[in-house]
């Protein structure tokens, strides 16, 4: 049982660290309105068409408001809100509501029942579809609010800086967080690559997910959140608050990325659009997730449309490295215009580079658009393919990219690619390690599962051994090997990756200053010692402790 009594000793809850930073504040919790079943009696037949129209209008109003919020947001928040808006217009869900109203149910009951049916169906399908249940409930609550003429649920906007604790956050809620008021975020569910985690990272909000026991911490409790250790201390004593480590806050770091003894490490941004400003001092773009640019689209964007987008990113980072990843469609990022087959295991199915087999011309048109953008802007973008598993895949991607004058690289997300990194590097100019998927595939654990987040922890020594293997191959070939998975945004782990021989780190822009500050505090030799210590560890917890000790923390 969690203690919130000030006289009781502090209780430490453990979760998965996502965004570094130590924060102490009172807990607030999102307020969701209770969902009513609506009137029990069926509607008279004459009233049903008007009730159905009222419901359709309510869903359309919710979708329009979310789309409008998407146009005012930037980055991941904008993409997530736009995708959320399409859910409010999901044809199958709306049809299920309509059928119920036609059979006599009032709109409120029809929405609640249809949502329940869909939620149960999604839950049975397992991850990643089950992840959408939170989204669906959020849409339901918004439509019910619209039908009842009350305001939509909102994330509380506290007067005091607070720590938001929630079971899970709907994307629309996560996108709404104000980092000046919400200084820490903790969720019971979610994994290190969930929407909540991605947005927290982008906003620079210290964050821990998959926290066991968090549901019992009430609003108003004082907690100390440590986003590096992945802990929530409930009722910390005053000495703990006073001596709380400064975390990995950036202080006066101004870049460029380098260790204390001057070993350069390019710190790059993960983006899905041209940035509105600065991008956290990024020295370039290490990962443009092009599939996120086109979420919710049913028609393939034209070469010209794609070229315009890529051109904007190239112009924003003129003269600097820009790595454009070709569409990583499928699994957790399905695209309407790609038309994915129904597969029992989408994460092991046709995703990433494999979609090119089923859709001749899709990859060629995308690379052509990059080539057009390169010509129009006079820049030299790098292109990289996701989900490469064989040397032949890397070879044919490289040949295609080179035929268009582009510099090719591939992602190392499948353990097979790490194991054969030396032979893949015979064909490509660079590698970029995607630790999110590499952890998923190395540990045979779904990256979206909160229950398995200890396995998908990038501190797992087996995952880091694979990263080390890719980095060694890069050093031998004299070619760059970066990391663009979420691991790069963890300051302590970033230093370990440098010790493993990684040459660049790409992350959400908000994470760059803290990573830059951490690297500036340690020497390359300390990073190497930490890497050796981590590779000798047998658990992720042991790896973290060994890295801290090796770096004198
Ligand atoms: C990764 O797998 O680490 C990666 C960067 O790709 P994504 O998260 O987009 O799958
Ligand atoms: Mg990936």
TrEMBL record:
<feature type="domain" description="PEP-utilising enzyme mobile">
    <location>
        <begin position="160"/>
        <end position="230"/>
    </location>
</feature>
<dbReference type="Pfam" id="PF02896">
    <property type="entry name" value="PEP-utilizers_C"/>
</dbReference>
<feature type="domain" description="Phosphotransferase system enzyme I N-terminal">
    <location>
        <begin position="14"/>
        <end position="132"/>
    </location>
</feature>
<feature type="domain" description="PEP-utilising enzyme C-terminal">
    <location>
        <begin position="258"/>
        <end position="522"/>
    </location>
</feature>
<dbReference type="Pfam" id="PF00391">
    <property type="entry name" value="PEP-utilizers"/>
</dbReference>
<keyword id="KW-0808">Transferase</keyword>
<dbReference type="InterPro" id="IPR036637">
    <property type="entry name" value="Phosphohistidine_dom_sf"/>
</dbReference>
<keyword id="KW-0460">Magnesium</keyword>
<dbReference type="InterPro" id="IPR040442">
    <property type="entry name" value="Pyrv_kinase-like_dom_sf"/>
</dbReference>
<protein>
    <recommendedName>
        <fullName>Phosphoenolpyruvate-protein phosphotransferase</fullName>
    </recommendedName>
</protein>
<dbReference type="InterPro" id="IPR000121">
    <property type="entry name" value="PEP_util_C"/>
</dbReference>
<dbReference type="InterPro" id="IPR023151">
    <property type="entry name" value="PEP_util_CS"/>
</dbReference>
<keyword id="KW-0479">Metal-binding</keyword>
<dbReference type="InterPro" id="IPR015813">
    <property type="entry name" value="Pyrv/PenolPyrv_kinase-like_dom"/>
</dbReference>
<comment type="similarity">
    <text>Belongs to the PEP-utilizing enzyme family.</text>
</comment>
<keyword id="KW-0418">Kinase</keyword>
<dbReference type="Pfam" id="PF05524">
    <property type="entry name" value="PEP-utilisers_N"/>
</dbReference>
<dbReference type="InterPro" id="IPR008731">
    <property type="entry name" value="PTS_EIN"/>
</dbReference>
<dbReference type="InterPro" id="IPR018274">
    <property type="entry name" value="PEP_util_AS"/>
</dbReference>
<dbReference type="GO" id="GO:0008965">
    <property type="term" value="F:phosphoenolpyruvate-protein phosphotransferase activity"/>
</dbReference>
<dbReference type="InterPro" id="IPR008279">
    <property type="entry name" value="PEP-util_enz_mobile_dom"/>
</dbReference>
<dbReference type="InterPro" id="IPR036618">
    <property type="entry name" value="PtsI_HPr-bd_sf"/>
</dbReference>
<dbReference type="InterPro" id="IPR050499">
    <property type="entry name" value="PEP-utilizing_PTS_enzyme"/>
</dbReference>
């Amino acid at each position: 049982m969690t203690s919130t009594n000030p006289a009781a000793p502090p209780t430490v809850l453990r979760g998965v660290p996502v965004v570094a930073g130590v924060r102490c504040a009172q807990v607030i919790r999102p307020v969701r309105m209770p969902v009513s079943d609506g009137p029990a009696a069926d509607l008279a037949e004459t009233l049903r068409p008007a009730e159905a129209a009222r419901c359709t209008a309510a869903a359309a109003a919710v979708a329009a408001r979310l789309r409008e919020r998407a146009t005012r947001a930037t980055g991941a928040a904008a993409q997530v809100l736009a995708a959320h808006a399409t859910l409010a217009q999901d044809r199958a869900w709306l049809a299920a509501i309509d059928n119920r109203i036609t059979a006599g149910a009032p709109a409120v009951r029809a929405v609640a029942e249809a949502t329940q049916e869909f939620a149960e169906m999604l839950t049975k399908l397992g991850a990643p579809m089950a992840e959408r249940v939170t989204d669906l409930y959020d849409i339901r609550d918004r439509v019910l609010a619209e039908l009842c003429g009350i305001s939509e649920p909102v994330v509380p906007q506290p007067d005091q800086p607070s720590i938001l604790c929630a079971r899970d956050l709907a994307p629309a809620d996560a996108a709404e967080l104000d980092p000046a008021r919400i200084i820490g975020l903790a969720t019971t569910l979610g994994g290190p690559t969930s929407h909540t985690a991605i947005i927290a990272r982008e906003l620079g909000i210290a964050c821990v997910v998959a926290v066991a026991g968090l549901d019992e911490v009430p609003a108003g409790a004082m907690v100390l959140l440590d986003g590096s250790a992945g802990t929530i201390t409930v009722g910390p004593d005053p000495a703990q608050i006073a001596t709380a480590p400064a975390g990995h806050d950036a202080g006066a770091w101004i870049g460029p990325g380098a260790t204390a003894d001057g070993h350069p490490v390019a710190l790059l941004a993960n983006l899905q659009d041209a940035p509105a400003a600065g991008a956290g001092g990024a020295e370039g773009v290490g990962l443009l997730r092009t599939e996120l640019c086109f979420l919710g689209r049913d028609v393939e964007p034209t070469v010209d449309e794609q070229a315009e987008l890529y051109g904007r990113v190239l112009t924003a980072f003129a003269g600097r490295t820009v790595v454009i990843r070709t569409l990583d469609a499928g699994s957790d990022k399905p695209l309407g215009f790609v038309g994915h087959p129904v597969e029992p295991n989408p994460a092991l199915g046709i995703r990433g580079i494999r979609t090119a087999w089923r859709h001749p011309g899709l990859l060629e048109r995308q690379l052509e658009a990059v080539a057009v953008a390169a010509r129009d802007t006079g820049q030299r973008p790098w292109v990289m393919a996701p989900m490469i598993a064989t040397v032949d895949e890397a070879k044919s991607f490289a040949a295609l990219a080179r035929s268009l004058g582009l510099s090719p690289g591939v992602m190392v997300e499948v353990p097979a690619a790490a194991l054969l990194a030396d032979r893949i590097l015979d064909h490509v100019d660079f590698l970029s390690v995607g630790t999110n998927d590499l952890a998923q595939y190395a540990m045979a654990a779904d990256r979206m599962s909160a229950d398995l987040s200890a396995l998908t922890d990038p501190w797992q020594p087996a995952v880091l051994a694979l990263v080390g293997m890719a980095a060694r191959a890069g050093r031998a070939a004299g070619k760059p090997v970066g990391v663009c998975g979420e691991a790069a945004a963890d300051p302590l782990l970033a230093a370990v990756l440098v010790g493993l021989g990684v040459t660049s780190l790409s992350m959400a822009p908000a994470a760059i200053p803290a990573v830059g500050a951490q690297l500036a505090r340690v020497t390359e030799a300390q990073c190497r010692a930490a890497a050796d210590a981590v590779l000798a560890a047998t658990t992720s917890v042991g790896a973290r402790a060994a890295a801290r000790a090796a770096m004198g923390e």
